[in-house]
Design brief:
There is one protein chain. This protein is 35% helix and 29% strand. It is built from twelve helices and 22 strands. It has an eleven-stranded mixed beta sheet with strand order 1-4-5-6-7-8-9-10-11-12-13. Strands 14-15-16-17-18-19-20-21-22 form a nine-stranded mixed beta sheet. The N terminus is likely disordered. With 443 residues, the protein is α/β, with parallel strands linked by helices.
Amino acid sequence: MRGRAGTLVAATMLVALAGCGGEPYGDEKLENAVKDVDHVSSVNGTCSQEGLGSWSCHPEVRMNGYALAKDVAAASERVVDMLDPDRGDAATITVGQTSERGVEIELTARSKGTKKIADATRQILDLEPAVKAQFREDDGGWLVDMSLQDGSFGTFVSDARTILDVSGAARLRFDSRQPEILGEADRGTWPQTELDVLAAVQGAAPVLTARVDNGFMSVVVRSKAGQARKAAARVAGFTSIQFVDITTDAGLNLYGLTPRQAATVAPLLRQVRREPGFRTFDVEEGGLEITTDTLAQARSIDQTLHAGLARAHTTLRVTYRAEEDGITVERGRDGEAWLDTAAALADAGLFDAITITRVDDGPPQVDVTVRPSASPRRVGVALARSWRPEHPAKYRVDLQAGGDIFFDGAERIKLRPQAGGSPEDSQAYDDVVAGWAEGRKDP
């Protein structure tokens, strides 16, 4: 019996190892692939098994700092040839990695242009001052991140421009630690004027942080902001920069917005930050997230903010988070607010949390978490009365112990039970559905 069981286990392991496009790499297979490549210091071909015959593989090759461009290119080509596109494999080649310098290259089975990346890698390793960099593919083109560890920022950005050209990358991100400077540049649109202005500001005042992109400059100085602004204004081409903010206010970071959006929203944020209940704001995915104490305070801020945006004919996605009320509302780019809907649901006093978000430019998704003490029938009525045919939305009702109910329009209802539960048979589910029907008849 024991022998048959052992045979069965062995057979199962063999099937798993042969799954998903062939046997996963293993160190020996990866070592053989790069065995004639110079300056390889170590490999890791281990894959993790996610299920029977299902593997996740991320092979790694480490090369020392003496590797030439041809060595890096050879290792990249060998690794790319091994990767399985169906499995979604990704690989990493790390060259000359120390605490101060080094390059990391992320590869997939579809990676192209690795020779140029290898040439750029060798140049980065030879740079003074010390730089760390990463190459990865993004939307079909290469993206390079370069980070200055210590040394002259002026020399660093000049070298970064050269690396952008040599590598053939579509976009470059660069940063330094002291002072904290972040910047981006696309191929063919180097922000030279913005960098010239930054250099002038650094000559006039102690810079704490800076954010630089084409048409965008945000600089925080420790002191002498007035002198820094005058120095910036003397730089040729200064007036061509759409957004320039030089301040001692470290709390107004608008990096991630377009220059037009930033120029419009900066004075408005300075105004609403003084209003009661304003906590914080962040720039997330090309929009703002504003946190307040209550929803009423968020609505007051929204009136000021969007009146200013409308005057400037500027659109901006804004998400409000009312911490004390447990409410999150995403105001669409088109300016249509769902704050009224959130307020109506909150006034019902039936929900622990309310979240309204837009999904792929379609109808908003209204998620509500029902309080354990709430009447399910009243929940259904409140949801139905918040629905408007001119502002359709989809609803997800979290009954917590009873599963989720979906209302994907005015009438249709779909239930998703929780594991181990039977919400179809629960009275709570029936009462919510009945309440929805009642509310739709008598809005």
